[in-house]
Amino acid sequence: MVIGDSHYFNNGLPSNLNDFTKAQIAELDVIASKFHKTILEVFGYQKHADFWKNIAFANSIQSAFTSSNQVPTNDEKDTAEKAFKEYLEITKPEKVIVFSSRIWEHFFNNEGCWGKHLDKIDNRWNIRQLDYECGNCKALGIYHPNARNFAGYNFSNIIKEFLQNY
To answer: pTM for the full model?
Structure first.
């Protein structure tokens, strides 16, 4: 499972938000954002259709943002955490990669955070075991692909290690 940060709508909201993500992913081989192109590169795929058919995807923030520099409120981040737990129950993933440091920090670096810390990759990237009602999974949180510090080749190795060794 891949968790992103948020959706951006700078030309008004689409008429059907329920199917927006599915429709967007279906069009990625024709029109792809930097986020989606980088995700494809990091996982070593050439075509979006080949990659996304085996990946559950959701954005954390449940509100529509109008710009990439918009900052979610604490209430929006709390709602994102509830939604994330629901995603786990629905998809029952073995592995989850959260491409958002701010979301990861909000979920797992506060008092009473959920899950169990397991290890670190490169002495930096935390791996957690997340228990949910129907099972558990391993999760890794890294930078958003549009972040200044994101280097695809470096994170490709981190993700590969996570998927192979945890």
So the answer is: 0.85
